[in-house]
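testing teh design pipeline on a random one, pls ignore if ur not involved
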C-alpha cells in the first residue's frame, strides 16, 4: 500500500486506482492548451478539451484550472491530474522558466490544482511527457535507450536511459534544442545565439530559408511569403516544395543536415537503439527521414563502424504531451 502525500499538507492512503478510474492530462503549449481524459493505461481519450493559451502570463494558471474544471464536471471518475508545461520544471513540479510561456515564473501549477480540486496533481516538462508516451505506448516501446525529439515551433525532447525518461539532478534534463551547435548561427527563442533549435525546428527551417533567400536564391519561397524575406516561414518552404521547386529542395537539404548534426551528437553521447522524431516536420517530404538517416551516419563519430540507429516518426501527434500527462498522473497517484 502506497501513501500519497498532498502538496498542501496532510496525507491520504492510496493503492492502485479502482477499475473505471480516469485521469486528466493537460498539455500547455505556446498557443494552445489541450486536455484529455483517459484511464492512464491506453491512449484512447474518453473526453477532450482545447482552448487558446492566454497571452497574459497571470491568466495561465486560471486557464488551466478552468479546462480541468470543465472536464471534471463532464467526467465523474477522475481521480488525478497531470500537467505538461513547456519549460524548466523542477522535481517538485514548479515551472521556473519557459521561453514559450514568457513571464510565467515560479508557477506551482500542481499545487494550485490540488488546492482547488483536492485531487493529486503533478506537473512535468512537456518534452518529458511526450517521451514517456512514445516509450510506453508509441514508437520507442521496448527500447531501454532512446531519444525522442519533438520538432515544433521549437524543439522539445526526452531522453530514455536504462528504461526511464531521464530527469537529471533538478528535473531539467532533456533540452536538446538548446545545445549550442553554431556560435555564428541564428538567434534562439531563449535569447542565446546558435542553439540547435534555431536551425532544426519549424523556426529553424524559416531561418535557413531566409538565409538562402539573402544569398540571392529562393524566388518561389519568397513569392509564397508575399515578397517579404522577414515573413518567410516553414510553411512557405513546404508550399514551394509541393511545386517541386529546386531551391526549396536545397533549403530542405541544409535543414536536414543541421538536424543530422544534432542527432549525431546525441547518439555519440547516449548510444540509443532508436531515435523518434515527433512534431510533424519529419513528414515534410517523401524520404525526408531517409535523408536525415544518411546524414546522421556521416555526422556521428565512427558512423560506418556502429550499428545504424533507426530514425522513426513518432506514433503520437498533437496528443503526445496530454497523453503523457495522464500516464504521469496515474504513476503519481500510485507512487507519489
Ligand atoms: Zn536556445
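output:
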Amino acid at each position: 500500500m502506497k501513501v500519497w502525500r498532498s502538496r498542501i499538507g496532510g496525507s491520504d492512503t492510496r493503492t492502485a486506482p479502482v477499475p473505471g478510474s480516469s485521469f486528466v492530462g493537460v498539455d500547455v503549449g505556446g498557443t494552445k492548451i489541450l486536455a484529455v481524459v483517459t484511464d492512464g493505461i491506453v491512449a484512447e481519450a474518453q473526453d477532450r478539451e482545447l482552448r487558446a493559451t492566454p497571452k497574459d502570463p497571470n491568466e495561465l494558471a486560471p486557464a488551466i484550472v478552468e479546462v480541468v474544471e470543465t472536464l471534471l464536471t463532464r467526467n465523474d471518475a477522475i481521480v488525478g491530474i497531470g500537467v505538461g508545461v513547456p519549460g524548466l520544471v523542477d522535481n517538485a513540479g514548479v515551472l521556473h522558466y519557459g521561453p514559450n510561456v514568457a513571464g510565467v515564473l515560479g508557477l506551482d501549477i500542481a499545487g494550485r490544482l490540488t488546492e482547488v480540486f483536492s485531487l493529486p496533481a503533478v506537473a512535468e516538462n512537456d518534452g518529458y511527457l511526450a517521451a514517456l508516451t512514445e516509450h510506453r505506448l508509441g514508437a520507442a516501446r521496448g527500447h531501454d535507450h532512446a531519444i525522442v525529439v519533438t520538432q515544433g515551433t521549437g524543439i522539445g525532447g526526452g531522453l530514455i536511459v536504462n528504461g526511464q525518461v531521464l530527469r537529471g539532478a533538478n528535473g531539467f534534463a532533456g533540452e536538446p534544442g538548446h545545445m549550442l551547435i553554431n556560435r555564428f548561427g541564428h538567434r534562439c527563442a531563449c535569447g542565446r545565439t546558435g542553439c540547435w533549435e534555431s536551425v532544426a525546428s519549424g523556426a529553424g527551417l524559416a531561418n535557413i530559408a531566409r538565409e538562402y533567400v539573402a544569398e540571392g536564391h529562393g524566388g518561389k519561397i519568397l513569392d509564397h511569403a508575399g515578397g517579404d524575406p522577414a515573413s518567410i516561414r516553414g510553411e512557405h518552404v513546404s508550399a514551394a516544395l509541393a511545386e517541386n521547386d529546386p531551391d526549396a529542395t536545397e533549403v530542405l537539404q541544409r535543414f536536414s543536415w543541421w538536424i543530422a548534426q544534432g542527432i549525431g551528437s546525441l547518439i555519440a553521447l547516449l548510444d540509443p537503439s532508436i531515435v523518434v522524431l515527433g512534431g510533424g516536420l519529419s513528414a515534410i517530404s517523401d524520404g525526408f527521414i531517409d535523408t536525415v538517416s544518411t546524414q546522421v551516419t556521416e555526422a556521428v563519430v565512427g558512423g560506418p563502424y556502429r550499428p545504424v540507429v533507426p530514425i522513426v516518426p513518432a506514433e503520437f501527434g498533437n496528443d503526445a504531451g496530454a497523453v503523457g500527462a495522464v500516464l504521469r498522473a496515474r504513476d503519481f497517484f500510485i507512487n507519489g
